[in-house]
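## retry 2 of 3
previous attempt timed out at serialization; input unchanged, resubmitting
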Amino acid sequence: MKPLAIVTGVGPGTGSSLVRRFVDGGYQVAMIARDASRLDALAAELPDAFAVPCDVTDTPALLAALEATRARAGVPAVVVHNAVGGAFANFMDVAPETLQTNFDINVMALFQLARWAAPLMIEQGKGAIMVSGNTSAQRGKAMFAGFAPTKAAQRILAESLARDLGPKGVHVAYLVIDAVIDVPWTRQAFPQAEDDFFIKPSAIADEIFHLAHQDRSAWSFLAEVRPFRENW
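## retry succeeded, writing output
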């Protein structure tokens, strides 16, 4: 049986690219997202990927989906938390409920995924938990008050997981994406931007795949990717 990778947040950009990369790398992939029709379409294209429709903020539904995945495909070798909740406004304009929802997606869903997957991976003596992040995890800009606090908390949670689980054989890594991801809505938002302004979802997927397969003697926790023209 092929090893299992679980990917949350399978949308048209990074999530779909992650699924394709892990399928190409010899995995069967459980795809978690709310849009069942999108997942079904991708599963029809990729026989080694299967749909697990679920809202990651609904903890009972998430845990049920994970157990169904385990029953079908076994213990995951890799879990990638790519689901993201965002908001872009100053703190007076962001509804408290929005911040809470983003926290539930970015932090609590990772917490629940790790609590479910880590014991299984420890028993296997190996495993990887990967998290897609961004520069909001490292700084709080004025228009990111509904987003940056949750990504910073996510990074700190991932670091706590890495320090706990690393010595037990489970690799946890956090990828900071310092870029605008090339998806249709960002192309509309930056209509004058040249192609090399954006980061390719496939390149993000390549890096997460690489992190998940690092030699144990050279594990990374915090990694960064950005376009070569990005001002940082």
